[in-house]
Amino acid sequence: MKRIAILGSTGSIGRSALAVADAHPDRIAIVGLAAGENADLLAEQMARYQPATVAMASGDALDRLRQCGVPGAANAISGRDGLVAVATAPEVDLVLCASSGTEALEAVLAAIEHKKTIALANKEVLVMAGGLVTEAARRNGVMILPVDSEHNAIHQCLHGREASEIRRLILTASGGPFRGRAASELKDVTADQALRHPTWRMGRKITIDSATLMNKGLEVIEAHWLFGVGANQIDVVIHPQSVVHSMVELTDGSTIAQLGVTDMRLPIQYAFSYPERWATRLPSLDFDIVRAGRLDFDVPDTAAFPCLRLAYRALDSDRSLPVVLNAANEIAVARFLEGSIRFPSIAEIIERAMDAHAPAEVASLASVRAVDQWAREYSLETARGVELKA
Amino acid sequence: MKRIAILGSTGSIGRSALAVADAHPDRIAIVGLAAGENADLLAEQMARYQPATVAMASGDALDRLRQCGVPGAANAISGRDGLVAVATAPEVDLVLCASSGTEALEAVLAAIEHKKTIALANKEVLVMAGGLVTEAARRNGVMILPVDSEHNAIHQCLHGREASEIRRLILTASGGPFRGRAASELKDVTADQALRHPTWRMGRKITIDSATLMNKGLEVIEAHWLFGVGANQIDVVIHPQSVVHSMVELTDGSTIAQLGVTDMRLPIQYAFSYPERWATRLPSLDFDIVRAGRLDFDVPDTAAFPCLRLAYRALDSDRSLPVVLNAANEIAVARFLEGSIRFPSIAEIIERAMDAHAPAEVASLASVRAVDQWAREYSLETARGVELKA
Predict the structure, then answer these.
(1) Exposure pattern of B108-131 as b/e (b: 16+ CB <10 Å)?
(2) Nearest CA distance, B160 vs chain A (angstrom)
């Protein structure tokens, strides 16, 4: 029986993770749940799974949870302390970090110090503090299992092969809803258009990141930390059908790829079951009918989608620049979702913050938070300057 | 230093294997060579690699080798005894079986009894005597490493995963030069046309087998023995670009594929280096330019290419029928290459032999040879009946 805590249980990944738990009641026990603001859904989940430890993002959310009258709500904790409590409770074997953004950083580090296996669905943790997190994992002998479909694919392709066997990693990208458009055609696209992802159903923030290709940029940085290879060994290939989830080219020239249906239950279950693999009834790939018998590949257009180029630039610096990239992106995407800035302004805001920042070491969580804070304030200010008038 | 003997050193695979040895003089020593009839080339190879043991198919060939005046020719041996001597010499670590046809069967079994690792590029060995060979390998703790690009791909995809993790194996097939043609359009195709393979350069027999899809049928049987899965867990998918060499679908629905350039040095080196992987300068797959950015997949047309259906039928019987399939195919392909029968007669001759045969156990090499002999004679007779008049 694997005892699992979920950070971000009411989000898209969190709900899929509970579906995986439902499919394997004899193998998985849900012992901790942390959510953001959705008190109603968390109350339902608590009634069903009866987790020992529960947390919500804010005091307000906690009040709403308590008003639901679900048993256990009285002991729920709010804020980062709540995330840490859920992630480090003694009964927990594995922590699924599926909360979006940077809130879970402390909780992940604390879980690692408590020797919990980490299933990581959150990109920002490694983008912001990849050095700190992977060093802590190494020191504590803790495994970080990637849930993101691309990194999960690479983990499956490597299947224990050493980094020294890798010639390059090839991350596939659907290209998002604006694939094939030139930079000039992206000036007036709306958030609604950007939210129509062609192949994956995901949360709003990550769907916008897919439209800008920043999602792939963050994945390049994440791959660097997860698999120990440099930016020059990580390539991105556009693959609109999202059937090949990613590939590893080995030193002899042989390439191993992982393919599958676009269903996040697959990588989540992989992380929950590892090193075992549990049978599912998920459908087989159908090479003649479902997929029109064809897989396409193309190079990314970094002129139209400069966020990918910015991410490579941030990774090359190997210091605090990825923190700036990520923080500025969070601010810019939030503004775009509100309708207050144009799509191309997202990259512009990020680049300006990167240009203004003097890269420094990120030797502690405090220094990460300081750079993060600076970049958010700087980007908010920049966003105001490029704001659309109503 | 790995000490390698090559059965079939003057053929297509044998020459590629020597190219691999040339690329790794510090890791590979060629200690034995066996060839068919090409005495001139074997003499050259002997001069270069100075193998301790040498064999040729016939006494005639041996005479020609001796006339070349190369040192060591005096000790060369002919016939199956020669193959056995090369395969079992005490200095040999690994035997590459790259001779075509069934001549090497005794040598492979003898090598296994002498605990030599087997790199298997010959399909007929497993098609004819898969039970005997895999049982001997199990008993002696000997590894059989597949060199055929499809099975080598599956070996790389599995990378130690157990057969219990396999939902199905997916063998890819280029479809050969006649892909897309209806049965009615295959009546008058010539051997020259059949020898123009779209993606792989190989020997004549295997190139015709690719045109009839019998090559894929033999691979289905081979995969059954190598990976311990039934015919109902082995699918064939047409993939004209030959970039994806084969795939494994695992029990959770995830599929692992191996991709690469169409160069046999890659799987040969994999078998020579296993469990290590040695770097090469073989080119990376280029997803945007070389391959026109597109991979296609389709189901095989067993109406136009009945040999694939016949192979599944032979495997389902799980007794002597694969021996008949293989022997009848060798006779029919030889007749087609001579121009004495039509292309559709290949499948017809095989099916008639299968229909006429009463499947029996194949518990010994003698019973394999007896069935083989019967099927060859029966098929020669059938071939005479469908012969084209000059």
Answers:
(1) bbbbbebebbbbbbbbbbbbbbbb
(2) 9
Angle between helices B124-140 and B105-113 in degrees, nearest 10: 10
Structure tokens at A103: 């809130």
Q: Do A259 and B258 touch (CB under 8 A)?
A: no
The CA distance from A256 to B143, in Å, is 22
Q: B157, B255, B264, B296: best mutation site toward chain A, by most A Cβ within 10 Å?
A: B255
- Sheet strands (E) in A315-360: none
Put simply, the answer to whether B251 touches A277 (Cβ < 8 Å) is yes
Give the distance, in angstroms, between the CA of residue B371 and the centroid of all CA atoms in the same chain: 20
- Is A15 exposed, middle or buried (CB count within 10 Å of its CB: 0-12, 13-18, 19+)? middle
With contacts defined as CB-CB under 8 Å, which chain B residues touch A151?
none
- Do A159 and B156 count as a contact with CB atoms less than 8 A apart? no
Structure tokens at B179: 């892909």
* Beta-bridge partners for A257: A247, B257
Picking from B168, B170, B253, the nearest residue to A261 by CB comes out as B253
In our burial notation (b when 16+ CB lie closer than 10 A, e otherwise), range B139-162 reads eeebebbbbbbbbbbbbbbbbeee
Fill in the DSSP letter of residue B298. B
Query: Does the global pTM surpass 0.90?
Result: yes
ipTM value: 0.93
Q: Identify how many contiguous H helices and E strands chain A contains and give both numbers.
A: 15, 12
Q: Residue A46 burial (CB < 10 Å; 0-12/13-18/19+)? A: buried
Q: From CA A17, how far away is CA A96, in angstroms rounded?
A: 8
Q: What is the pLDDT along chain A (390 residues), one digit of tens a residue?
A: 999 999 999 999 999 999 999 999 999 999 999 999 999 999 999 999 999 999 999 999 999 999 999 999 999 999 999 999 999 999 999 999 999 778 899 999 999 999 999 999 999 899 999 999 999 999 999 999 999 999 999 999 999 999 999 999 999 999 999 999 999 999 999 999 999 877 777 788 889 999 999 999 999 999 999 999 999 999 999 999 899 999 999 999 999 999 998 899 999 999 999 999 999 988 888 765 445 688 889 999 999 999 999 999 999 876 899 999 999 999 999 999 999 999 999 999 999 999 999 999 888 999 999 999 999 999 999 999 999 865
The pairing of beta strand A244-250 with beta strand A255-259: antiparallel
CA distance A57 to chain B (A): 34
CB contact under 8 Å between A280 and B156, yes or no, is no
Report how far residue A233's alpha carbon sits from residue B235's, in angstroms, rounded to the nearest whole number.
34
Nearest to B280 among A253, A282, A293 (CB): A253
* A255 contacts B260? CB cut-off 8 A: yes
User: Does A285 sit within 8 Å of B252, measured CB to CB?
Assistant: no
List the single residue in A252, A255, A277 with the smallest CB-CB distance to B269.
A252
> Among positive and negative, which fits the CA dihedral B263, B265, B269, B271?
positive
Question: How far apart, in whole angstroms, are the C-alpha atoms of residue A156 and residue A116?
Answer: 21
**Looking at beta carbons, which residues of chain B come within 8 Å of A254?**
156, 258-260, 266, 270, 277
Residues of A with CB below 8 A from B179's CB? none
Structure token pair of residue B234? 């082995």
What is the enclosing helix (H) or strand (E) of B376?
Answer: helix B365-385
Element (H, E) at A246: strand A244-250
Rounded distance, CA B272 to CA B278, Å?
Answer: 9
pLDDT tens for residues B98-149?
A: 997 788 999 999 999 999 999 999 998 999 999 999 999 999 999 999 999 9
Per DSSP, helices labelled H in B2-113 are: 12-23, 39-49, 59-67, 79-88, 105-113
User: In 3-state terms, what secondary structure has residue A114?
Assistant: coil
